[in-house]
Automatic annotation (TrEMBL):
<protein>
    <submittedName>
        <fullName>Thiolase family protein</fullName>
    </submittedName>
</protein>
<dbReference type="Pfam" id="PF02803">
    <property type="entry name" value="Thiolase_C"/>
</dbReference>
<dbReference type="InterPro" id="IPR016039">
    <property type="entry name" value="Thiolase-like"/>
</dbReference>
<comment type="similarity">
    <text>Belongs to the thiolase-like superfamily. Thiolase family.</text>
</comment>
<dbReference type="InterPro" id="IPR020616">
    <property type="entry name" value="Thiolase_N"/>
</dbReference>
<feature type="domain" description="Thiolase C-terminal">
    <location>
        <begin position="260"/>
        <end position="381"/>
    </location>
</feature>
<dbReference type="InterPro" id="IPR020617">
    <property type="entry name" value="Thiolase_C"/>
</dbReference>
<dbReference type="InterPro" id="IPR020613">
    <property type="entry name" value="Thiolase_CS"/>
</dbReference>
<feature type="domain" description="Thiolase N-terminal">
    <location>
        <begin position="4"/>
        <end position="251"/>
    </location>
</feature>
<dbReference type="InterPro" id="IPR020610">
    <property type="entry name" value="Thiolase_AS"/>
</dbReference>
<dbReference type="Pfam" id="PF00108">
    <property type="entry name" value="Thiolase_N"/>
</dbReference>
<keyword id="KW-0808">Transferase</keyword>
<dbReference type="InterPro" id="IPR002155">
    <property type="entry name" value="Thiolase"/>
</dbReference>
<keyword id="KW-0012">Acyltransferase</keyword>
């Protein structure tokens, strides 16, 4: 099997629901990122053999294979195909896995993997409408929404409301520190937007983190999914808009083209998990991907575990025994937002840049997914 490397990666700053990115169509948002991921290494678009994008709510402007339409908008020649996939919140991470598999097997040499989601313009569940789950499914499983799953996880592991809120506060503090320190500057593609007043602006700062967040303020929020529950808008991921992408190649092709690889894909996996608890998959996925890589959590310099809800990374920490000082050190989805289809590669891009910043070697990315699944990826930073 051939070695797979990442030579470029970028993301938009994440916009809040009805925020700075709400006036941009999703395919145009994705096209901007597809163009920039190529421009960063001055690679000709005609060399790309496939564009694989994750997108969860494939309806309206996000329907009709947005990977293909975005690539055409971005100026890729018409012989470059595109495909859009839905593995829920891990969709763009799965796009990376599919791209890496195509390259490792020798089917392709150069592939873009990424994702996009405008949760403002294509609201969550608008592709489902009033359709209820099949009786064939509900006869076998207790099918609940993710908020109830998060409540069940919090109860099962015995997390208090204060523990969840404390984790959320830390997410905001970490994100604000990263922003103020300029840690995200290099990975973000600035976008031209027009604000409500008609003024043209450059958008390059994540909108989600709140400087005025305190434990007292979080404690005042009402539970959303269950009476006297623990899950609130403050300890759940934010509804967001955004796009992200990475450019992958075989190591041989990168060398042939004179490209400096930023990281190599060491191991990748996907697992199914209990569809009622739904969000616990990163625990099993982490164990499986580490075994596949022949590494341990102690070998990892940083972990990114998506903060769908605060109980998710907290349960992951408890079950794996991982070092909390290495987890989501620059904030997570609770502070920075969770544009569903884009989150996997957004986190991967941030992980690569964080490993560069601290001169770390290995990084782990794990994302929980709807209906009980999870992807996990291990990357190794390459010396620049």
């Amino acid at each position: 099997m051939r070695e797979v490397v990442i030579v470029s990666g970028c993301r938009t700053a994440v916009g809040k629901r009805k925020g700075a990115l709400s006036g941009i169509r999703a395919e145009d948002l994705a096209a901007t990122i597809l163009k920039d991921v190529m421009d960063r290494v001055s690679l000709q678009k005609e060399l790309v053999e496939d564009v694989i994008l994750g997108c969860v709510t494939q309806v309206g402007e996000q329907a009709g294979n947005i990977a293909r339409t975005a690539a055409l908008i971005a100026g890729f020649p018409d012989h470059v195909p595109g495909v859009t996939i839905d593995r829920q919140c891990g969709s763009s991470q799965q796009a990376v896995h599919f791209a890496a598999q195509a390259i490792a097997s020798g089917d392709m040499d150069i592939v873009i993997a990424g994702g996009v989601e405008s949760m403002t313009r294509a609201p969550m569940f608008s592709n489902v409408g009033d359709i209820k789950p099949s009786k064939g499914l509900t006869d076998k499983y207790e099918i609940v929404n993710q908020g109830i799953s998060a409540e069940k996880i919090a109860d099962h592991w015995g997390f208090s409301r204060e523990q969840l809120d404390s984790f959320s506060l830390q997410s905001h503090e970490n994100a604000l520190n990263a922003m103020e320190s300029g840690y995200f500057k290099q990975e973000i593609t600035p976008l031209d937007i027009i604000n409500e007043g008609g003024e043209k602006l450059k958008f390059s700062t994540d909108e989600g983190p709140r400087k005025n967040t305190t434990l007292a303020a979080l404690a005042e929020l009402n539970a959303v999914f269950k009476e006297n529950g623990k899950i609130t808008a403050g300890n759940a991921s934010q509804i967001s808009d955004g796009a992200s992408a990475v450019l992958l190649m075989s190591a041989e092709k990168a060398k042939e083209l004179g490209m400096k690889a930023k990281a190599r894909i060491i191991a990748r996996t996907v697992v199914g998990s209990d569809p009622t608890f739904m969000l616990t998959g990163p625990i099993a996925a982490t164990e499986k991907v580490l075994k596949r890589a022949g590494l341990t959590l102690n070998d990892m310099d940083r972990y990114e575990v998506n903060e769908a809800f605060a109980p998710v990374p907290l349960a992951w920490l408890e079950e794996t025994g991982a070092n909390p000082e290495k987890l989501n050190v620059n904030g997570g989805a609770i502070a920075l937002g969770h544009p569903l289809g884009a989150t996997g590669t957004k986190l991967l891009v941030s992980l690569m840049h964080e490993l560069d910043r601290v001169e770390g070697r290995y990084g782990l990315l794990a994302v929980c997914e709807g209906m009980g699944m999870a992807n996990a990826t291990i990357i190794e930073r390459l010396e620049q």
